[in-house]
């Protein structure tokens, strides 16, 4: 199943295509830590990321959104022993190699990142970078800011020391810090400034795709807007494609061109941000958006859709549609098969009853 | 919501100062805070990190770790009793029974090695002279009220067997065992998913309404949560109250530049003025410049003067007073006058 390009801003094609991605984490038990069960954290997920766009990936904790991001940068096997990944993650490298990365990516066609070993992945790492949630734990406290931002350059780029220092200074200025601050340590910075450092590090290798996993949720309200604006400015300047993973739905809406809603490892709805927010179609998207509080005391809603119960344990997912145990419009037939994503008007929805 | 008869004050805080002694000097976490909490209302306390909102709450319950913290001066009257003058034994009997508190992270507030039932019955037995059986019955009843299915069986479960939302329900059940008239909720839904957040907030409001005269002090950084749950709002910055207003007034006509900046930095939540429903790309969020200052490096004069876009010379020389602009509305800003 492929999801076609239904973005209206006519950008230049896909940079990433995720096809039927499945990720299972093993659950071990007993003295010998044998695998006794598995959690299908991501279950048959397909989507495309277009050149220069921001795709928002939303859903509640445990829905698999972070796993999708980590699968794309191919770090799951290093993080979890025994993780099983299937499906394809097709990355379209640029035709000529970017100036700062060393290894030339002169392949003509797309590369399936999911199938690459660590060594084979290495030439593509500069192109795919991550920004993490917690600016306090994602920066090494014993390294100066300059060293933190320089590290990816040392690994991935053949630059002289002076070139690297120049680039670090340039990057720090790009994210609103100063060259002089490169000799200081992370603890000397506030949360918002640290996130700027994390962004500078992610940009060091001239990436084309940036996976931002909850990049502002640990920041103060007045700082979140600064970081979001910065990310948008950098996207414009460098033509970045963002996969923006977050649970704060109002921010996702603001920054995203398109949105994919996940529930228990499945994508249940994909469409343009404006359309999905204005008129969500999948019963889960409807409930999720209805639950978002609004900063408007005159709009307190009595018509809120209440979801009963909680997200089921992914170890024992319901058969058929994963949402059926909480769905207000569930029918007996929902237990039979996982509903596929189908094109309904302007978007893709995985529910036959809407 | 607003009745014409004078509201009864449940909690009266006057001139509260809570300082922390650190190696770098004295951190004035709460610096001359005064407010009233009326019976039956939900008062929101909004602020960013270091604003003093949590320390204010902890001061009410005398839960400030000392050293390094100390309540320097002020008065906290709860139902007419001065909490700062009572003995610690007396405070203990008030905690949980008359004033209860729930925290952001329910996992760290529950003891992982005792069953939920054990912790709930202990909480009852600490305040009431009844048998363990009776206490258990109360615990079951309370779990049922907060929406936990099959409560009798779940009494034997341990905290890790509950999900985040369920743990917060258990915390609320525990908080309400003593039928407190004041519930202090410090970021109660920040660690929860939005659908669970909606359930928990609704539950808190419902339980408040079931008990005559009960009130909630809701501490949060989330303005949308405030808009949906609070009757009045108190905005804090730099250890000081910057603005107090009924919730509608605050959102429709914020007075303090900081409040205005906070509200302006929120993304538009409705497509509203966007008929073509095509997102206007590159729409920028309005921001408050600069960083949230640490309480050790607060400026002289107005605490917000390092970030305020409307500052005048006077803001650096002298700190404005919190003055009542119209009945029920106060602001601390030289530019805001009656």
Number of strands of chain B: 12
Q: What quaternary form is this?
A: heterodimer
Q: Major sheet of chain B: size, sense and barrel closure?
A: 8 strands, mixed
Q: Largest sheet of chain A, if any? A: 8 strands, mixed
Mean pLDDT of chain A: 87
| Terminal-residue CA separation of chain A | 20 Å
Structural class from helices and strands of chain A? Answer: alpha/beta
Query: Mean pLDDT score of chain B, rounded?
Result: 88
Gyration radius of chain B, rounded: 21 Å
The spatial strand order of the largest sheet of chain A comes to 6-7-8-3-9-10-12-11
Note the overall shape of chain A: globular
Give the overall silhouette of chain B: globular
CATH class of chain B: Alpha Beta
What is the beta-strand fraction of chain B? Answer: 15-25%
Strand content of chain A: 15-25%
How far do the termini of chain B sit from each other?
Answer: 25 Å
Please give the share of residues in helix of chain B: 25-40%
**Which superfamily, in CATH terms, is the homologous superfamily of chain B?**
P-loop containing nucleotide triphosphate hydrolases
Share of helix of chain A, binned? 25-40%
Provide the structure class of chain B: alpha/beta
């Amino acid at each position: 199943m492929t999801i076609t390009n239904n973005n209206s801003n006519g950008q230049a094609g896909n940079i990433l295509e995720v096809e039927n991605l499945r990720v299972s984490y093993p659950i071990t038990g007993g003295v010998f830590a044998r695998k006794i069960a598995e959690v299908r954290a991501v279950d048959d997920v397909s989507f495309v990321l277009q050149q220069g766009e921001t795709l928002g990936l939303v859903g509640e904790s445990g829905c698999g959104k972070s796993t999708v991001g980590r699968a794309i940068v191919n770090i799951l096997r290093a993080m979890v022993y025994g993780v099983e990944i299937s499906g394809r993650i097709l990355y379209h490298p640029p035709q000529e190699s970017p100036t700062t990365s060393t290894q030339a990516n002169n392949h003509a066609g797309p590369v399936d990142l999911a199938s690459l070993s660590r060594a084979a992945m290495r030439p593509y790492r500069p192109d795919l970078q991550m920004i993490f949630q917690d600016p306090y734990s994602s920066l090494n406290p014993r390294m100066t800011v300059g060293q933190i931002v320089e590290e990816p350059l040392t690994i991935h780029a053949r630059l002289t020391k002076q070139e690297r220092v120049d680039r670090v200074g340039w990057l720090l200025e790009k994210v609103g810090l100063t060259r002089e601050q490169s000799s200081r340590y992370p603890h000397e910075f506030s949360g918002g400034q640290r996130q700027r450092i994390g962004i500078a590090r992610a940009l060091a290798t001239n990436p084309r795709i940036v996976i931002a996993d909850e990049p502002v949720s640990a920041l103060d309200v007045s700082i979140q807007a600064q970081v979001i604006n910065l990310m948008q400015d950098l996207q414009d300047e460098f033509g970045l494609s963002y996969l923006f993973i977050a649970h704060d739905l109002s921010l996702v809406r603001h920054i995203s061109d398109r949105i994919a809603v996940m529930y228990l490892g499945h994508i249940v709805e994909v469409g343009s941000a404006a359309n999905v927010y204005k008129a969500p179609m999948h019963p889960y998207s409807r409930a999720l958006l209805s639950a978002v509080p609004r900063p408007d005391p005159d709009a307190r809603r009595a018509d809120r859709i209440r979801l009963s119960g909680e997200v089921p344990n992914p170890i024992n997912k319901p058969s058929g549609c994963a949402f059926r145990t909480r769905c207000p419009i569930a029918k007996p037939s929902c237990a039979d098969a996982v509903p596929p994503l189908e094109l309904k008007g302007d978007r893709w929805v995985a529910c036959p009853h809407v | 919501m607003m009745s014409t008869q004078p509201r009864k004050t449940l909690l009266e805080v006057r001139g509260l100062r809570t300082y922390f002694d650190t190696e770098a000097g004295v951190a004035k976490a709460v610096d001359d805070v005064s407010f009233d909490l009326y019976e039956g209302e939900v008062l929101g306390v909004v602020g960013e990190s270091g604003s003093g909102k949590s320390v204010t709450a902890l001061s009410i319950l005398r839960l400030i770790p000392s050293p390094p913290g100390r309540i320097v001066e002020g008065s906290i009257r709860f139902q007419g009793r001065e909490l700062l003058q009572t003995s610690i034994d007396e405070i203990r009997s008030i905690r949980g029974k008359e004033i209860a508190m729930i925290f952001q992270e329910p996992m760290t507030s529950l003891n992982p090695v005792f069953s939920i039932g054990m912790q709930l019955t202990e909480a009852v037995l600490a305040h009431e002279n009844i048998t363990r059986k009776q206490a258990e019955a109360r615990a079951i009843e309370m779990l049922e009220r907060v929406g936990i299915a099959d409560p009798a069986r779940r009494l034997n479960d341990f905290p890790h067997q509950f999900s985040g939302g369920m743990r917060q329900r258990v915390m609320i059940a525990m908080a309400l065992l003593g039928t407190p008239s004041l519930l202090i909720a410090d970021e109660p839904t920040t660690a929860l998913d939005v659908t669970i957040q909606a359930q928990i907030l609704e539950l808190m409001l419902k339980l408040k309404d079931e008990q005559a005269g009960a009130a909630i002090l809701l501490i949060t950084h989330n303005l949308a949560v405030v808009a949906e749950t609070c009757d009045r709002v108190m905005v804090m910055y730099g250890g000081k109250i910057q603005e107090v207003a009924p919730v509608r007034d605050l959102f429709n006509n914020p007075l303090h530049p900081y409040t205005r900046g906070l509200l302006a930095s929120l993304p538009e939540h409705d497509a509203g003025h966007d008929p073509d429903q095509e997102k206007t790309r590159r729409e920028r969020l309005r921001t408050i410049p600069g960083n949230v200052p640490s309480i050790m490096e607060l400026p002289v004069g107005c605490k917000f003067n390092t970030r305020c876009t409307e500052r005048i010379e006077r803001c650096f020389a002298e700190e404005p007073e919190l003055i009542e602009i119209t009945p029920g509305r106060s602001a601390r800003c030289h530019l805001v006058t009656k």
